[in-house]
Amino acid sequence: MLALSGQDRSPFLPAAPTLREQGYPLAVREWYGFCLEIRASSPGELAERFKADAAEWRDLIRQTGYTAES
Q1: CB under 8 Å to 45, separation ≥6 — which residues?
Q2: CB 26 within 8 A of CB 5
Q3: Which helix (H) or strand (E) holds 62?
């Protein structure tokens, strides 16, 4: 394991550093129906998470100037 993409280290892989710890200012939240760290939420909370993540990715894409043609 080179790095974890989340905000924090995983309790399942405590020795694996995060991307941020390695100097990359990025935390990625993946969306899965099933994952190792299960967190209960309501449909409304999930919708808010989608909106927040979309806004974060939109800002990052704009900052880097990335386009589909890049």
Answers
A1: none
A2: yes
A3: helix 43-64
- Let me know if residue 11 belongs to a domain: yes
DSSP label at residue 29: -
Report yes or no on 34 lying in a domain.
Answer: no
Residues 70 and 44 in one domain: yes
Those residues with Cβ within 8 angstroms of residue 28's Cβ, 6 or more apart along the chain or in another chain: 5, 6, 19
The pLDDT tens digits for 13-65 are: 999 999 999 998 888 877 665 557 777 889 999 899 889 999 998 998 898 88
Tell me what pLDDT residue 14 has: 94
| Domain count of the fold of the chain | 2
Q: Model-level pTM greater than 0.85?
A: no
